[in-house]
C-alpha cells in the first residue's frame, strides 16, 4: 500500500491532515450562482476540494414510469428515477464554468462520472482525480475506464459486500490505477450514526491494502471526526447553503459553519493521535513540580520519629516520592526540621 496519494499537489494519507471533500451534488438546485456560492463557502471553510456529480437524466436512467423506476419512501418519495435525476443533475455546460470558478478560488475540483461520456467530459477539463459513487461500485467497465486515465481514484463502498469491493479494487488496479482510496460509506440519506460501524475503516485498509476514508451521510460531524482516529485520511460530506433549501440533497448536508467546524475538528483529531508515547510532553514538563511528594507538616525535633501527624503526601512535588512513605514512618529525624520543608532521604537517622 502506498503511504499516500497525491491529488492536485496535495498529499493524502495517514501522515497528513485529513483531506476534506465538499460534495456539491444536487445542492445547486438548478442555479449556477448557488453552485458558485457553495464553492466560495467551501473554500472559506477550509475544504480541500469541491466534488461534482456528472450525469444527466438520460445517461443515468431512462424515462419510464413502471414500478421498477418508482421511488417509494425516503426523501424522494413519489418520483420516478428519471424525474429525480432530471431535477438534480449538473448541466453539462456548467462543468467548464465550475472548473474555471475553482481555479479562481484556488480550490481543487473533480467529479463522480456515471458513464463513459462523463469521463470524456472530465478528461477534456483535465480533472485531477475521479470518484466512483457507491451505487456505481459494481459497474466494473466504468471503473476500468476511469482507471485507464491514470488519475487518482476514490471509491465509495455503500451497499457493497467484501467480494464486490475486492472486485472493484482489482479492476482498478489491473487497469492502471496506482493511487486509490476506498471510502467506508452507508448509503442512507441521512444515515444513522449507529449504523456506521466505523471500525470497518481500519479493516478496509488492511483487507484490501489501500488507504481508507469515510463518505459520511450523517447530519452532524461527530462520526466524521471519530473516523479520523480510526484511520480515515479522507472525508467526504455533502455541503449546502441552507439545509432547508428544498433541494434533493439539502436536508442531509452541512451548512457553511458546520463545514468549517468539520475542517477544524478533523485536523485537531488527527493532530491529537500522534504516536505511542510514555514520556512527558512539553505541555506536562512545567507541571511536574505540582505532583504530590512527602512534606514535613509539623516541626520535628532532632531524634523525633516521623509519623502520620508530621509527614504527609501533599502537593507540590519537591520532596521524596510518596512511594517511600511506609519506609519513613517510624524512623527518626537526624536534625531539627521545620513545617513546610520537603522531606529528603538525608533527614533520616540510619
TrEMBL record:
<dbReference type="Pfam" id="PF03102">
    <property type="entry name" value="NeuB"/>
</dbReference>
<dbReference type="InterPro" id="IPR057736">
    <property type="entry name" value="SAF_PseI/NeuA/NeuB"/>
</dbReference>
<dbReference type="Pfam" id="PF08666">
    <property type="entry name" value="SAF"/>
</dbReference>
<dbReference type="GO" id="GO:0016051">
    <property type="term" value="P:carbohydrate biosynthetic process"/>
</dbReference>
<protein>
    <submittedName>
        <fullName>Pseudaminic acid synthase</fullName>
    </submittedName>
</protein>
<dbReference type="InterPro" id="IPR006190">
    <property type="entry name" value="SAF_AFP_Neu5Ac"/>
</dbReference>
<dbReference type="InterPro" id="IPR020030">
    <property type="entry name" value="Pseudaminic_synth_PseI"/>
</dbReference>
<dbReference type="InterPro" id="IPR013785">
    <property type="entry name" value="Aldolase_TIM"/>
</dbReference>
<dbReference type="InterPro" id="IPR013974">
    <property type="entry name" value="SAF"/>
</dbReference>
<dbReference type="InterPro" id="IPR051690">
    <property type="entry name" value="PseI-like"/>
</dbReference>
<feature type="domain" description="AFP-like">
    <location>
        <begin position="293"/>
        <end position="350"/>
    </location>
</feature>
<dbReference type="InterPro" id="IPR036732">
    <property type="entry name" value="AFP_Neu5c_C_sf"/>
</dbReference>
<dbReference type="InterPro" id="IPR013132">
    <property type="entry name" value="PseI/NeuA/B-like_N"/>
</dbReference>
<dbReference type="GO" id="GO:0047444">
    <property type="term" value="F:N-acylneuraminate-9-phosphate synthase activity"/>
</dbReference>
Amino acid at each position: 500500500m502506498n503511504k499516500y496519494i497525491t491529488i492536485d499537489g496535495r498529499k493524502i494519507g495517514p501522515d497528513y491532515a485529513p483531506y476534506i471533500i465538499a460534495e456539491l451534488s444536487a445542492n445547486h438546485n438548478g442555479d449556477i450562482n448557488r453552485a458558485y456560492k457553495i464553492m466560495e463557502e467551501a473554500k472559506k471553510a477550509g475544504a480541500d476540494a469541491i466534488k461534482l456529480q456528472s450525469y444527466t437524466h438520460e445517461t443515468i436512467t431512462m424515462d419510464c414510469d413502471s414500478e421498477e423506476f418508482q421511488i417509494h419512501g425516503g426523501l424522494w418519495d413519489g418520483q420516478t428515477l428519471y424525474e429525480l435525476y432530471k431535477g438534480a443533475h449538473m448541466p453539462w455546460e456548467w462543468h467548464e464554468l465550475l472548473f474555471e470558478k475553482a481555479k479562481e478560488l484556488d480550490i481543487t475540483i473533480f467529479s463522480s462520472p456515471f458513464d463513459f461520456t462523463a469521463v470524456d467530459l472530465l478528461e477534456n477539463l483535465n480533472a485531477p482525480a475521479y470518484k466512483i459513487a457507491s451505487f456505481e461500485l459494481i459497474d466494473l467497465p466504468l471503473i476500468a475506464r476511469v482507471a485507464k486515465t491514470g488519475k487518482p481514484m476514490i471509491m465509495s463502498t455503500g451497499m457493497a459486500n467484501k467480494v464486490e469491493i475486492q472486485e472493484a479494487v482489482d479492476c482498478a488496479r489491473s487497469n492502471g490505477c496506482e493511487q486509490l482510496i476506498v471510502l467506508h460509506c452507508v448509503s442512507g440519506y441521512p444515515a444513522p450514526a449507529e449504523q456506521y460501524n466505523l471500525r470497518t475503516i481500519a479493516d478496509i485498509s488492511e483487507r484490501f491494502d489501500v488507504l481508507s476514508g469515510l463518505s459520511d451521510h450523517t447530519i452532524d460531524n461527530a462520526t466524521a471526526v471519530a473516523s479520523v482516529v480510526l484511520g480515515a485520511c479522507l472525508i467526504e460530506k455533502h455541503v449546502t447553503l441552507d439545509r432547508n433549501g428544498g433541494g434533493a440533497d439539502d436536508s442531509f448536508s452541512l451548512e457553511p459553519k458546520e463545514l468549517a467546524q468539520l475542517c477544524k475538528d478533523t485536523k485537531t483529531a488527527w493532530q491529537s493521535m500522534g504516536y505511542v508515547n510514555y514520556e512527558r510532553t512539553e505541555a506536562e514538563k512545567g507541571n511536574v513540580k505540582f505532583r504530590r511528594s512527602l512534606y514535613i507538616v509539623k516541626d520535628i525535633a532532632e531524634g523525633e520519629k516521623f509519623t502520620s501527624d508530621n509527614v504527609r503526601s501533599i502537593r507540590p512535588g519537591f520532596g521524596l516520592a510518596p512511594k517511600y512513605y511506609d519506609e519513613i514512618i517510624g524512623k527518626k529525624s537526624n536534625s531539627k526540621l521545620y513545617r513546610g520543608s520537603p522531606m529528603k532521604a538525608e533527614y533520616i537517622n540510619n
